[in-house]
Design goal:
This protein is an alpha/beta fold. It has one domain. It contains nine helices and seven strands, in the order E-E-E-E-H-E-H-H-H-E-H-H-H-H-H-E. Strands 1, 2, 3, 4, 5, 6 and 7 form a seven-stranded mixed β-sheet that branches. The longest helix has 21 residues. The radius of gyration is 18 Å and the shape is globular.
């Protein structure tokens, strides 16, 4: 099996990709590729069995879309009772609440902030092109076909039974938090990196190898790239989450969450 991780960084117009081969369930990451233009992503996705994207929401909050349509058609701005519904999707709120229950405070950026809106438009075009070339409907939850993998996680399916063609949304920081690894401080606050953030990335790398239960061999080139670039590290994390999704080891929407997730997207976290 081959998984692909794609990171939409905050300080670059291009994406970063990381491919992992999984012979017998052993992860062998390839050196991450920085500066990949959007038009080159669909061919990479087609070459992978599963893809996970971090840094780009797959949809928009239902309440925001309803308010925009109402305002455009009737001149009425329908403000929900909870203004938070305008900015965060169901999956954003679910992830933050789930981690808070586990004692971890993580704030996900609103799907309506400028960076999120820009990258949501980019990934929408990419997802549409990928679905068209695969001749299948767009799936914002990211679980292909009638596999039964659309509810809470059950027993791991193993490498023989996994479906192919899945494209999922994840959050690198939230995945790290779910694993109990450092999720804050590994990315720079601005375009200029520091020794401190690099040190955090090195701790994250060590944790990914030794504290997640994932069997993986990280070569020196991959280690160096992920230590130097937070985009490379996030692409690596996404590729690992893609493997978790393929083997049904991510948290998926319940029946009551599924309708909103189909429209807004769903953030997969390792279960």
């Amino acid at each position: 099996m081959t998984t692909l991780g794609i990171s939409f960084g905050r300080f670059s117009r291009h994406a970063t990709c990381c491919t992992i081969q999984w012979p017998g369930g052993l992860g062998l990451p390839e050196t991450p590729k920085l500066g990949v233009p959007d038009e080159a992503l669909v061919p990479r996705m087609e070459a992978a069995d599963w893809t996970a994207v971090t840094g780009a929401p797959f949809g928009f909050p239902d309440a925001m879309l309803d308010a925009i349509v109402s305002y455009a058609e009737d001149g009425r701005w329908e403000r929900p009772a909870d203004p938070e519904l305008l900015h965060h999707r169901l999956t954003d709120r679910f992830v933050m609440e789930l981690l808070a229950e586990r004692g971890t405070e993580l704030y996900l950026p609103p799907a309506t902030d400028p960076d999120s809106l820009r990258d949501a438009g980019r990934i929408a075009h990419i997802l549409t092109e990928h679905a068209s070339r695969a001749d299948q409907p767009l799936d914002r939850i990211g679980v292909p076909g009638s596999t039964g993998m659309d509810g809470p996680p059950d027993l791991p399916r193993g490498l023989v039974q996994f479906p192919t063609g899945g494209v999922i949304e994840t959050s690198a920081a939230a995945a790290l938090a779910a694993w109990g690894l450092p999720f804050d401080g590994y990315s720079p606050a601005d375009a200029y990196d520091s020794t401190g953030t690099r040190a955090v990335r090195e701790r994250v790398l060590h944790g990914l190898e030794h504290e997640t239960g994932v069997s993986m061999i990280v070569c020196g080139d991959v280690r160096a790239a992920a230590a130097v670039s937070y985009d490379a590290l996030e692409a690596l994390i996404a590729a690992i989450v893609a493997f978790a999704a393929a083997t049904d080891e991510t948290i998926k929407p319940t029946l009551t969450q599924r309708g909103a997730a189909r429209r807004e997207g769903w953030i997969h976290l390792p279960s």
